[in-house]
Specification:
single chain, about 270 residues, mainly beta, Immunoglobulin-like, 8-stranded antiparallel barrel, 8-stranded antiparallel β-barrel, 23 strands, about 55% strand
Length: about 270
């Protein structure tokens, strides 16, 4: 494998043709991948020939060579790709990015499926996608702007992705990924009075399946302790008598495997006269 050739301009990123942003270039080694989907055109592929020249084959327009021309920042002129058909592309300057429309970090799946899940990690503008769950190589890319990304998949092509609320990536090959949103465990509590007996009923939602320990505190004192099991659906219901002072503030801790999962407060009910 030939050593990568360092080009006099950075080819990676977005380019504009005729002032309209569209082509998106990704470079791996000396190989070029050009996403032309913004113009409704097929992907193009090419090669770095030297530090100042490339060649790209466009499926709908043949093969063209190009000369790389560095811009002059002090004069406000951008880097340029000057093609052999006398057209040219100019580098799009990416503004500082403070956030993206969607938090990309986490697990993603193809729309309508639950497996395999791909893990996206974002660091600044850089993206890494662990695709080992599908036996695929790690993909890399970057965040272009608030709602657009680009990722090069080693076993496929480079694709742009449009971020859409609430948690969707719509890729330029018309595939769609959805983020796996894990709902946080939560609880609801209700008191029942029977004479002087006070019973606390609790319901749990989105808990990991397994044993749930429930401890009721009044200040620094433990005044009740009971257990139940969360089912495969993450739900549970339990109840226990609690001897507490009318109107007192109580803290209820729900734990699993020795670790607190949810802590919630409630008031000890007042027994009517």
């Amino acid at each position: 494998m030939a050593n990568p050739i360092a080009t006099i301009i950075n080819l990676n990123g977005a380019w504009a043709s005729g002032g309209v942003t569209g082509p998106f270039i990704s470079v791996i080694g000396n190989a070029l991948s050009v996403d032309m989907s913004a113009y409704g055109r097929p992907f193009a592929a090419g090669t770095v020939l030297s530090s100042s020249s490339i060649t790209v084959t466009f499926g709908d327009d043949g093969t063209h060579t190009a000369t790389l021309v560095p811009g002059q920042p002090e004069a406000g002129t951008p880097d340029t790709i000057q093609w052999s058909n006398h057209s040219s592309w100019t580098k799009v300057v990416i503004p500082v990015l403070t956030t993206s429309l969607i938090d990309l970090n986490g697990k993603w799946v193809s729309a309508g499926t639950s497996q395999p899940a791909f893990t996206i990690a974002a660091s600044g503008r850089s993206l890494t996608i662990d695709m080992s769950s599908a036996g695929r190589q790690t993909a890399r890319g970057f965040i272009f702007d608030f709602a657009d990304i680009f990722v090069d998949f080693p076993d496929a092509n480079g694709f742009t992705g449009k971020l859409e609320l609430p948690n969707t990536i719509h890729w330029s090959n018309n595939s769609v990924w959805q983020k796996v949103v894990v709902s946080k465990p939560s609880v609801s509590m209700l008191w029942e009075l029977n004479g002087k007996i006070k019973t606390l009923f609790v319901n749990g939602f989105n808990f990991p399946p397994g044993l749930v320990n429930i401890v009721v505190h009044s200040g620094q004192f433990e005044i009740a302790h009971f257990s139940t099991f969360a089912g495969a659906n993450g739900l549970f219901t339990a109840s226990n008598e609690v001897d507490c002072t009318d109107g007192g503030t109580l803290s209820v801790v729900f734990s699993q495997a020795g670790q607190p999962v949810v802590t919630s407060g409630t008031l000890c009910p007042t027994i009517p006269p």
